[in-house]
# Entry
Amino acid sequence: MNALSKYTTLGVGGPATRIVHARSEEELITAIKSADEAGEPVLILGGGSNVLISDSGFNGSVILVESKGNSYEIDACSGGTLQVSAGDNWDEFVAFTIEKGLANLESLSGIPGTIGGAPIQNIGAYGHEVSEVIARVRSYDRTEKKIITFAAADCEFSYRNSKFKKEAGRYVILDVTFQLRRGTQSLPIMYDELAKELGVTIGSRVDTSLVRSAVLKLRKKKGMLEGEVASAGSFFTNPIVSAEVAANLPPSAPRWPQSDGRVKTSAAWLMESAGIHKGDTSGGASISSMHVLALSNAGTATAEDIATLARKARAKVQEVFGITLEPEVQFVGIEL
# Structure
């Protein structure tokens, strides 16, 4: 039985008609072409860390991106240029760059998933996003049936968004090229929480290995490290609202002004302030006892249990604050 629960960090998801393990770029493109030519629905999965698949599963081909390998050049002046296959593990890659004396990815330590998923979601943490260091993205265009390389400027990156997410299903990431800085000093520390953990002030630069250790420690406290809690990490994105909406929030609400005049606030704060608490349950699903944004599978959850808990949190925030939380995870065969 092709149970998809084995391939997702939430540990839920029914059977697939077919599962294909694509261990090279050639195998990946061949599998996609074959399914497309047969008119078969396709679901591309990397690390399975950002998806909620229904209990009824997926009626089609699930293609697991397992391609590995990287090439890199490191220059004392220009830094490092690294081309990395879509199936490589994200956090292992971050650790690799720090070991090689390269900086700018340290605050993105501990994020679950694969290289191919990083540009789609424009992953980010502690004030920095992966789009800051992406040089180009190679992809297979299922519409044009050819390989297309996008420069970073053409990827339409924004907060937890990209061209690849906006046109979901069209582009399959083959590899990503990163441009990193040579050195052991981190990017400026932008978040109070991380600054306090490191014992420094906002704007300080710290040894990259210390930043990585601090970020991993913070993520562990929140139950956000892969393998320790069956979750998809942060279930909702932090809302970006108008200045008017932000002005009507309580004074204690976190506020991060954006360049376009809007204001980002905290999804976790909104949930807790609306009456959603750590430890809340629905069937076998629960709000993590460590972080309210981590909806988790306690061991017996169904996809519907998790969706029900998410609907409750979303409805409470809408009722109390008039703000609609948007999921960070991809829903397959199930509605929020």
Q: What stands out?
A: The first helix runs from residue 25 to 37. The chain has a mean pLDDT of 94. The first strand starts at residue 16 and ends at 22.
